[in-house]
Design brief:
The complex is a heterodimer. By secondary structure, chain A is an all-alpha fold. Chain A has helices spanning about 20-75, 80-100, 100-120, 125-130, 135-145, 150-160, 165-175; one strand spanning about 180-185. Classes of the chains: A mainly alpha, B alpha/beta. The interface of A and B includes residues 98 and 182 of A.
């Protein structure tokens, strides 16, 4: 369950310092969303960087294999090219797998955008900002997530885990997800 | 005659990755950008297998599966969901809608081809079409 700004009651009797208390609640709420965005971007950058590195390695391997293949094709029987062809195929498959990071990246960035746009819209009018239900906004943002990883990251953020702890937990989650395997119903 | 696969994903890059993988193995691949587009195609043509993403605009993959299962010609067609989503709740929704199975992205090309071979009743991989 999400919670923000619990130190300040949602409804209080009018008092001279109400404006300050409301401003603090808004600031706390926005702070939480900004931290969430930072954590999401950190996770996206880290994973994307690793996948792009794999693509670069695959391309380098393919380039080397291709050079050798061209050389062998001129000087040796075709049967001697089979291992290079297999190596090329493997590098291509690795690239196809790694390139799928882009699909995840777009989903993540779309959700980060929503996580910033929704509270931004809610605080556009300062006179209405005092009545914002931050918890329902958090729930609305979380409901848009399409990946378990994102929901877990969100829940970790709300529990106040440190970035390193979260990224470690996310790594374990990815390893447990068994990507590519068919689960028959 | 090559098997016809309907690949449904709102991400053009994912459709390319699936298309490249399956066409290289001899499948005929029809691409659709969302469930609505896929359903329109499926109503007018026959396909041997549908490989659909879950989260898509206009019509998501789970709704697409339910709609296809309601068509008499798709009662027995393998319908696979290929998605980044891996929660048990979502899988349960897919199962209830009538999906044949669930694959979590990212896929490895060899693994995907082996899966399709297996789901398409264990028949041999389709013969590659002659280059034109």
């Amino acid at each position: 369950m999400t919670s923000i700004g619990k130190e300040v009651p949602a409804t209080t009797a009018p008092a001279p310092h109400d404006g300050l208390a409301n401003a603090l609640t808004v600031a706390r709420g926005l702070h939480q969303f900004l931290n969430l965005g930072v954590a999401q971007l950190d996770a996206a950058l880290r994973e994307s960087d690793a996948q792009v590195d794999k693509i670069a390695q695959s391309l380098a391997a393919m380039s080397g294999d291709l050079q050798q293949l061209e050389h062998r094709a001129k000087t040796e029987p075709a049967a001697n090219c089979a291992d290079l062809a297999a190596s090329l195929r493997e590098a291509l498959a690795a690239s196809v797998k790694a390139l799928q990071f882009y699909d995840k990246l777009i989903q993540r960035l779309t959700h980060v955008r929503a996580g910033l746009a929704i509270p931004a819209d809610a605080t556009t009018d300062p006179s209405l900002a005092t009545g914002i239900d931050w918890n329902s906004i958090l729930d609305e943002v979380r409901a848009r997530y399409s990946m378990v990883e994102e929901r877990v990251l969100f829940d970790f953020m709300m529990r106040g885990l440190r970035a390193e702890q979260m990224l470690k937990a996310l790594q374990s989650l990815r390893e447990a997800a068994a990507p590519g395997e068919l689960e028959l119903f | 005659m090559s098997r016809r696969i309907l690949a449904v994903d709102d991400s053009a890059s994912m459709r390319h990755m699936v298309g490249v993988t399956l066409r290289a193995a001899g499948y005929e691949v029809i691409e659709a950008a969302d469930g609505h587009e896929a359903l329109e195609y499926a109503r007018q043509h026959s396909v041997d297998l549908v490989l659909a993403d879950v989260n898509m605009p206009r019509m998501d993959g789970i709704t697409l599966v339910a709609e296809l299962r309601a068509l008499p010609s798709y009662k027995l067609t393998p319908l696979l969901l290929l998605t980044t989503e891996s929660s048990p709740q979502s899988k349960q929704q897919g199962k209830q809608a009538g999906a044949t199975g669930w694959i979590v992205k990212p896929f490895h090309p060899d693994q995907l081809l082996a899966t399709l071979d297996r789901v398409l009743s264990g028949s041999a991989r389709p013969v590659a079409r002659a280059a034109t």
